[in-house]
């Protein structure tokens, strides 16, 4: 059972509802303060995941090569186009809040969809649960996502709750794919994979608090290349050192 995925989807669904119903009572100071705490929590989760890595050089290679692939393929742009189409579809079912101009609403919605459906933490947590059944990352993310959905729901309305549907589809697909990958891995490869996921969570934290806007969508391929690079490092490079 994908406990982490179910928890994360429910957190966004109910968080969006709570935010839409109580948003009028929230001050901007409260919203900004909670957003800062989301960022530092994401970075703490990243540090926790990075600490037990086994092959630092392989992880560094994966980050550089994976990010390079994402930038060359314009992955971030493709994800933004996809989420914009998703936003237009979702908006058919819920009206735009009158306090928002259409363009501002669409930009914010695209950001929210990327955050909930294509974030580094979500992808990393889903793959981790699919490979070894550890739902810790997704459950921790669910706590953050619930309050984030409350904040976004307060601004955007009930449309935020509907993002739980595409999120369920995307994360379930990643979960099933992870089952195929796990038999090909070793414990050290898993630790290096977690370290790269931690780096992605660190980058996401910096984006949330708007210190540095790392291209997190373009960095996603590093989670694909890290395991092959870790395997090559351990089997061909380390024996020569």
Short summary of the structure?
The protein is mainly α and 241 residues long. The protein has helices spanning 3-22, 28-50, 56-72, 75-90, 102-117, 120-132, 136-156, 159-162, 164-181, 187-208, 216-219, 222-237.
List the helices and strands and how they pair.
Elements: H1 3-22, H2 28-50, H3 56-72, H4 75-90, H5 102-117, H6 120-132, H7 136-156, H8 159-162, H9 164-181, H10 187-208, H11 216-219, H12 222-237
Helix pairs in contact: 1-7, 1-9, 2-7, 2-10, 3-10, 3-12, 4-5, 6-7, 6-9, 6-10, 10-12
Please characterize this protein's 3D structure.
This protein has helices at residues 3-22, 28-50, 56-72, 75-90, 102-117, 120-132, 136-156, 159-162, 164-181, 187-208, 216-219, 222-237. The chain has 241 residues and is mainly alpha-helical. It is elongated. The relative contact order is 0.23.
Helix amount: over 70%
Largest sheet: none
Residue fraction in strands: under 5%
Q: Report the count of strand segments.
A: 0
Spatial shape: elongated
Radius of gyration: 18 Å
Oligomer: single chain
Order of helices and strands: HHHHHHHHHHHH
Q: End-to-end distance, in Å?
A: 43 Å
Overall SS class: mainly alpha
Mean pLDDT: 85
Q: Give the low-pLDDT segments.
A: none
Number of helices: 12
Keywords, separated by commas or semicolons:
241 residues; mainly alpha; 12 helices
């Amino acid at each position: 059972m994908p406990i982490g995925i179910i928890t994360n989807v429910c957190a966004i669904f109910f968080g969006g509802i709570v935010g839409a119903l109580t948003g009028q009572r929230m001050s901007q100071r409260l919203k900004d303060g909670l957003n800062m705490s989301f960022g530092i929590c994401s970075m703490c989760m990243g540090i926790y995941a990075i600490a037990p890595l086994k092959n630092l050089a392989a992880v560094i290679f994966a980050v550089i090569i994976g990010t390079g692939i994402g930038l060359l393929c314009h992955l971030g742009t493709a994800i933004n186009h996809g989420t914009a189409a998703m936003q237009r579809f979702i908006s058919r079912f819920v009206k735009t809040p009158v306090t928002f101009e259409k363009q501002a609403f669409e930009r914010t919605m695209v950001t929210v969809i990327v955050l909930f459906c294509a974030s580094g933490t979500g992808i990393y947590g889903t793959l981790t649960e699919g490979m070894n059944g550890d739902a810790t990352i997704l459950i921790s993310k669910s706590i953050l996502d619930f309050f984030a959905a409350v904040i976004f729901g307060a601004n955007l309305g009930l449309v935020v709750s509907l993002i739980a549907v595409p999120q369920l589809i995307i994360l379930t697909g990643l979960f099933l794919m992870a089952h195929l990958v796990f038999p090909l891995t070793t414990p050290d490869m898993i630790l290096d994979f977690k370290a790269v996921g931690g780096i992605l969570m660190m980058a996401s934290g910096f984006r949330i608090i708007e210190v540095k806007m790392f291209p997190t969508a373009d960095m996603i391929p590093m989670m694909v290349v890290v395991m092959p690079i870790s395997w090559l490092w351990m089997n061909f490079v380390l024996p020569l050192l």
